[in-house]
Recover the amino acids of this structure.
């Protein structure tokens, strides 16, 4: 009996050693394969002196700097052939890739894994050019460019062209476009993804594809359907939009004592029905609501609209600031003293970690509930809410026209966010506030499903389950997928089945493949 047990233990040891040896051999083989096609200065192993600085350079949430599964290799390609080589080497050696453009993924899934996994990160920081053609009002924008770099290039090309995307200038184009992407031009010109007219994709076979060669279903899926699920988009061709030479911005803060509850209650009905040249969002924090606006026109033209449509806000001429569209980009997000050149800065302060989630509102929330909400915002360790109005031309687009389904009937989107410093601990109290407030809001937001925005990724909504054959489960993915994509989830899974049936491009919330006939 003792001899039998000893033999069994020896067998287990030998099997474990063989498995480890095989794994190390695959790792060596992967690196050798990469080195044959990619210059060594673009490759970093965990023992490389620059590994940590390269990895941490675009981590935007300090809580992911430690205690997480990191890439075994970092690849910083400079051209399409490097990306193709990374995919082919990865497939050959069973090493998955995660793709980072700007590092703003709310759960850090572009550079880390929730579970133990051997993977490489493809950092797109060196593929970031922006080529603007003002005459045709189009641009090619590489995935590694930031929104700030894109906006700056567009602003340099003319003061009557713009692009409708997000507010934060350090966000990477690749992830932003892949999940939809919206900002102050949303109601008139839609999402960033709505304005994508071509793309260059490296698929799971290492092929370089454009709009025509990838097929209509995959091109549809890339534009707002979690694009990292389908391959690696190197570059996006976008159509630029027209703006006047002068736009108007305003910030009007209203405290609870000044009537914020009544003004917010009214805002819910007014903001989605205003002319689509006018966008008024609200940041609600503590006992104050800050109404922040961009209007495509002059102050003289805006004032009569505000007096007739939203007098409750009390906005007047002294609140107006006229400027060019490109000047409005830093003004709105970075503050009144920021310059246009500031949007080229790729670094951000790393003094606070954060947690976020989202909701959609289809029926206006009552005044009494808003009073209770301000009570939540007055609690210790409370976070904030950002309310972005829908309506306008954006909401007239059919739900199935793009993967992004939150269109007609939506009044506004809510982003909940909370912050904590390292000195205050691991953020347990702040995360609990988000969790409990989200539960409180359930009766007042969309239902069946309770909708969420894919670019405000939240793993608390659900994670993929990898089943037989190493493929993510379509049915398990519905838990989170239908919240982000509603009825479009199935079509996204079918597009995934066409381009990546083996589920090579996978993370905790990537689209699972659904293959016809299986």
């Amino acid at each position: 009996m003792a001899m039998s047990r000893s033999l069994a233990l020896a067998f287990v040891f030998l099997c474990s050693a063989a498995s480890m040896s095989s794994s190390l051999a695959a790792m060596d083989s992967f690196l050798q394969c990469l080195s044959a096609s990619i210059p060594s200065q673009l490759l970093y192993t965990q023992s490389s002196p620059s590994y940590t600085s390269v990895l941490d350079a675009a981590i935007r949430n300090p809580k992911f700097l430690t205690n997480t599964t990191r890439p075994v290799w970092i690849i910083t390609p400079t051209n399409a052939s490097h990306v193709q080589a990374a995919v082919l080497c990865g497939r050959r050696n069973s090493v998955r890739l995660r793709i980072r453009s700007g590092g703003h993924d709310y759960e850090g899934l572009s550079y880390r894994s929730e579970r133990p996994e051997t993977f490489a990160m493809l950092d797109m920081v060196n593929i970031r050019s922006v080529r603007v053609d003002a005459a045709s009002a189009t641009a090619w924008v590489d995935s590694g460019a930031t929104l700030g770099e894109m906006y700056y290039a567009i602003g340099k090309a003319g003061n009557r062209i713009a692009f409708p995307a997000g507010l934060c200038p350090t966000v990477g184009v690749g992830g932003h476009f892949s999940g939809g992407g919206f900002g102050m031009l949303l109601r008139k010109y839609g999402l960033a993804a709505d304005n994508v007219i071509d793309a260059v994709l490296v698929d799971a076979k290492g092929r370089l594809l454009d709009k025509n060669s990838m097929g209509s279903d995959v091109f549809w899926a890339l534009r707002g359907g979690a694009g990292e699920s389908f391959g690696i988009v190197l570059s996006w061709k976008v159509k630029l939009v027209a703006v006047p030479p002068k736009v108007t911005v305003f910030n009007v803060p209203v405290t609870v004592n000044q009537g914020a509850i009544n003004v917010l209650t009214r805002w819910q009905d007014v903001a989605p029905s205003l002319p689509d040249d006018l966008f008024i969002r609200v940041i609600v924090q503590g006992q104050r609501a800050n109404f922040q606006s961009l209007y495509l026109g002059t102050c003289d033209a805006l004032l009569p609209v505000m007096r007739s449509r939203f007098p409750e806000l009390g906005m007047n001429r002294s609140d107006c600031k006229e400027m060019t569209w490109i000047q409005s980009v830093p003004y709105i997000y970075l503050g009144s003293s920021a310059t246009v050149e500031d949007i080229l800065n790729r670094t951000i302060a790393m003094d606070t970690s954060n947690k976020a989630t989202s909701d959609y509102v289809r029926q206006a929330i009552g005044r009494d509930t808003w009073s209770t909400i301000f009570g939540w915002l007055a609690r210790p360790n409370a976070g904030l809410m950002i309310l972005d109005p829908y309506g306008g031309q954006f909401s007239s687009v059919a739900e199935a026209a793009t993967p992004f389904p939150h269109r007609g009937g939506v009044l506004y989107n809510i982003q909940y966010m909370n912050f904590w410093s390292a000195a205050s601990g691991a953020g347990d109290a702040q995360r609990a506030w988000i969790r409990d407030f989200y539960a409180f809001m359930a009766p007042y937001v969309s239902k069946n499903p309770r909708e969420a925005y894919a670019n405000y990724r939240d793993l608390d909504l659900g994670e993929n389950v990898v089943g037989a054959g190493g493929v993510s489960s379509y049915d398990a993915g519905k838990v989170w997928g239908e919240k982000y994509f509603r009825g479009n989830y199935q079509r996204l899974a079918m597009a995934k089945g066409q381009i990546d049936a083996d589920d090579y491009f996978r993370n905790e919330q990537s689209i699972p493949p659904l293959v016809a006939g299986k």
